[in-house]
Amino acid sequence: MSIDSSQLSTTLSALMNQYLQHLDIDAKTFQQLSQQIDTLLRAGQRHRQANWAAHMTPAVNELAALGQFVAALHQGNLLSSELYPELAIIEKDIFDFFCPLFGQQHGHATHGGSYGNLDALWQARKRFGGYSNRVYASDQSHYSVFKACDILGLELHLIPTNESQQMDIAALAFACNEQTPMAIVATAGTTSSGQIDDINAVKAIIEHSPCWLHIDAAWGGFLSLIDTSPLTDKQFGQADSVCFDPHKSLGQPRPCGLLMYQQPIKATASPTQYLTQTPCDTLPGSYGAELLLPLWLTIKTLGKTGLEDQIDFQLDQARRFASFLNEQPGWQADKSPTGIVCFNPPPQTDLSGLLEKGIFSITEIAGKKVYRAVFAGPGTRSDTLISDLAPYL
How far apart are CA 201 and CA 220, in angstroms? Predict the structure, then answer.
């Protein structure tokens, strides 16, 4: 099924205007609201453009958008799961699909990777906090790891990365030898360059230590869906917990996050007299169809094969783009296994005009600024990006 996004926006605008006309508001307010809605809908169209590669914000696919609409009409809450058994079944369907791909046993929905990292480190503190208060993560880890440690009162130590932007294993081993940490956060898909830490090597260092291994796969977790993945369920399965954000790579609306883990989480010890079933001791409280239905409808309709085809296409577009740039005199591009291409044009070449349009973004690697193209959705095309760069080649 294919829906013309421009036609859909026009239809939505017309429906909103029709609804606003029935409200008891003055003409001036109606005009202002109508213009603001039109502005929002037009701005949202940028994510559907073939040259949108600035950030991890792909267009929401039509199936997910339909699921989000149904979720708004449902409004159920899994804090009272006995009242909404249909939602509990849907949540189970989602984790029956994803947990085997990540080598994990259990899971719950979250509002994104920041919540997933916080929740995972909270569980780690409850499990191993009596041994240590220290957390190790790479200097390329997501800023939410800093926030989580700050909130939980944990001592975060950053491990330097190597030339490939991966956690330096020798430096990690040295740090662990000095003091065993409560937890290590490995990254599967760094935000800046899309690189993956060596999970096997990290696990080998703490194999027999009282230490929780969490993998922040908010970006790179989509690799679990493809057969040619550099990360398999065996590698993911070495972790005590893994978080993944389908809203970054699978065309899902925000919020849409998954946190998976090996051991079941116990029920809360807090009093819950108003609930028939005691909720688990996890970060999310009230949540329901808004976190579940878009993703559920996507996986039920496309399945692993359909999602794998989309991901293969995204990664192929990234490879084509990087290869083209490396063939141009004075240009240098570094591709990643997760579809992020960091590149530099020849000196004195100014691409600021393309940054302003949201075509590319800027990041910093090893203290140097580089341009960044993110192939987050199947709508981004390498040939369109190359055409945008043609005046600068």
Answer: 18
- Residue range 41-64: mean pLDDT, rounded: 86
Pick from 161-170, 176-185, 261-270: least confident: 261-270
Q: Long-range contacts made by residues 5-10, C-beta under 8 angstroms, separation at least 24?
A: 5/45, 5/48, 5/59, 6/45, 9/41, 9/42, 9/44, 9/45
Residue 256: partners with Cβ closer than 8 Å, 6 or more residues away: 109, 112, 245, 246, 247, 291, 294, 295
Torsional sign, CA 232, 237, 240, 241? positive
Are 246 and 376 in contact by the 8 Å Cβ rule? The answer is no
pLDDT for residue 2: 43
The interaxial angle of helices 289-326 and 382-389, nearest 10 deg, is 50
Give the whole-angstrom CA distance, residue 56 versus residue 370.
17
Q: In whole angstroms, what is the distance from residue 329 CA to residue 393 CA?
A: 8
210 contacts 237 by C-beta, under 8 angstroms: no
Name residues whose C-beta falls within 8 Å of residue 212's C-beta, 6 or more positions apart in sequence. Answer: 120, 121, 123, 124, 127, 128, 182, 183, 184, 240, 241
Evaluate the CA torsion angle 76, 81, 84, 85 in order and state its sign: positive
